[in-house]
Design a protein that fits this description.
By secondary structure, this protein is mainly alpha-helical. Helices cover about 75% and strands about 0% of the residues. Helix 2 packs across helix 3 and helix 2 runs parallel beside helix 4.
Length: about 160
């Protein structure tokens, strides 16, 4: 009986060793998969971050930036003249100054069009526009163009011409 018992125990022990080896093999495979998944996650994360850094403003975000640029354009136009001028002269100078604002934004964010600012820079671009002063614009925007001078003369905005020379 003892020999039978030993055979039974030996058989059970062999099964347990086989099971333990199978479990160890599965553990090693799972550990390797975990390492592979971590590497894959790192690659996917990098790809996603690279992608995220190239996405331009969405339509509503671009509209919002444009709105802030537009408000700043009106502020600069009033500041530039410092007095009431004809609507035509105001509109021409406003258009000129808003182009200047867009020029500064495009240069700052290294894009061809203001709406190509990266989406992740959208709020920063708005804050940048809000912080602009008239003197931050290129110098050619801080003068009257020939067309604006002609318009001022035609509408009798002589005070502006005298003041701005």
């Amino acid at each position: 009986m003892s020999k039978q018992l030993m055979e039974l125990n030996r058989s059970q022990m062999e099964q347990m060793v086989t099971q333990a080896n199978s479990i160890l093999k599965m553990y090693d495979e799972l550990t390797n998969m975990k390492v592979e998944f971590r590497e894959l996650y790192g690659e996917i994360r990098k790809e996603f971050d690279d992608f995220k850094n190239t996405v331009p403003l969405t339509g509503p975000q671009a509209d919002r930036l444009h709105s802030y640029c537009s408000r700043k354009g009106h502020q600069f136009t009033r500041e530039f003249f410092g007095e009431e001028v004809s609507q035509e002269l105001y509109s021409k100078k406003y258009g000129h100054l808003i182009r200047g604002i867009f020029t500064v934004v495009k240069k700052r964010y290294e894009v061809n069009k203001y709406n190509q600012v990266r989406r992740i820079d959208g709020e920063q671009a708005i804050a940048f526009v809000e912080s602009l002063t008239l003197n931050d614009l290129p110098k050619n925007y801080l003068r009257l163009t020939d067309s604006q001078i002609d318009t001022a003369e035609r509408h009798g905005d002589y005070h502006v011409l005298e003041k701005l020379g």
